[in-house]
Structure formats: C-alpha cells, structure tokens
Amino acid sequence: MTIRSLLASCTAIACLAFGLPHGDAHAAMTRSTTETPAYVDMHSYLPTWQERDAWLGVIYQLKVNFDDICGDTFCEGEYSNLEALRYTCSANTTTGQVGECRFVFAASSEEVDPDTGKVRSAVHQWQCASPLAPGTDARQLVAALQGSRPLWATLPGTSTTLYEGLTGCL
C-alpha cells in the first residue's frame, strides 16, 4: 500500500466518521484554523446568549410540536414510530442569511419471523428542507419561531409554515 493510497483510505474513513462527503474532506482538512468559514450552524452564528438560548428553545419546541401531532398525522401507516431527530439551520457568517434548514426524522418497521424468531427491521430516514424564502435573516427566523407553536409559525418572507413543508416530505 502506497502512502498516497493509505492517505486516501484514511481520508475516506474520516469522511465516514464525521459525516463529510468525500469531496469536502480535503477542503475541511486543509482549511486554516484562522480562516472564517462561510457558513456555520445557526447556534454558532447567533451573537448573544439570549438568541442562542431562544434557538435551543425553538429546536426543543419543534420536537414537542411534532410529538403532539405525530399519532394523528405522519405516524400512521408503515412507520408508526416516526421520531423527529434534529432541526438544524446554517447561517452565513458575513450576511447572517440562512443557507438552509433541515428537519431530520427516522423511523423503523419491525417484524418477527415466525419460523426462526429473528427480528427483521426496515429503517428509513427523511431530511426535510424547510420552505424558507431566499435571503431569510437568521435572527428574524429565530424571532418568528419563538413561542409554543413554532411548527405552525409563518416563516419570514413567506405565507407558509414548517408544518406545510413537512407534508410534502414525510
């Protein structure tokens, strides 16, 4: 095994371990530690602890909202144990505009083989992009989603909600 192939193998393993696409691995590994990235997680972007705390509250409340409606809407049928895993948004470090938000869900379906006793599982995941208006400001998004019902809050610059975005995804 040459050094080049060993390095390529290590890079591929690192990509898998950290969830990076292989093409981004080199850029991620060679980026200067002093260079500011173009986009960061929303929590990292927000400048005050109050805004970061509000964002964590939004994420928590989105999961609560989804859990409250799951049984009557999305959690019927093949995947009755649908779980909201995480809501994540990126923010541009220079402009404060949201790059993208995704709500990630997972579910499984199991059955027991009556002859062997083995359990067979089918696992499925969804990555639902939020229907944000282009140029949505990160701080305005946090403000719009605060409260007890962020799943039904009108998104800035739109007439739609996160819930409406989920209906086309799940």
Commentary on this structure:
This protein is α+β, with helices and mostly antiparallel strands. The chain folds into two domains: 35 residues, no CATH class; 131 residues, no CATH class. It contains six helices and four strands. A hairpin with a 5-residue loop joins strand 2 and strand 3. Helix 1 crosses helix 2. The N terminus is likely disordered.
Helix content: 25-40%
The beta-strand count equals 4
Shape: elongated
What is the H/E string? HHEHHEEEHH
Low-confidence stretches: 1-27
First CA to last CA: what distance?
Answer: 45 Å
Total count of domains: 2
Question: For the residues shown, what is the average pLDDT?
Answer: 85
Radius of gyration: 20 Å
Structural class: alpha+beta
Tally of separate helices = 6
- Widest sheet: strand ordering: 1-2-3-4
**Major beta sheet summary:** 4 strands, antiparallel
- How large is the share of residues in beta strands? 15-25%
